[in-house]
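Can't paste images in this forum, so I'm doing it all in text. The chain is below; anyone willing to post the predicted structure tokens underneath?
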Amino acid sequence: MRIVEGAGAWSLAAGAANDWAEQLRTPDLSVGTYCIPVGGTDDQSPHTEDEIYVVTAGRATIVTPTGTAAVEPGTVVFVPAGEEHRFVDVTEDLALLVVFGPAYGSRKDVHPEE
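Text version of the structure:
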């Protein structure tokens, strides 16, 4: 057992546009926190791993090719590997607990669209 310290807690380096910090990594999954300040731009690219976001603070909208939804604390979003997605209209500092399966970046040679 392990307590994952800091996972999902708002944290942003001074002057940063957004911030990603990984708090736990195993071969099968990774857990981290992604933060975007009010008015910030989410510049991430699609990932080769499945992803779950749990909104722990803030408000925004997530946009994907399959739909658009408002998110707020308690919202849980699943994004399959390879799907374009972006958080927009960040109206309150957004903190997201992020779970990747398998671990983030571990499937660099996988092409989900195939």
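Residues 19-101 form a domain with the Jelly Rolls fold (CATH 2.60.120.10). Strands lie at 19-25, 30-36, 50-64, 67-71, 76-79, 86-101.
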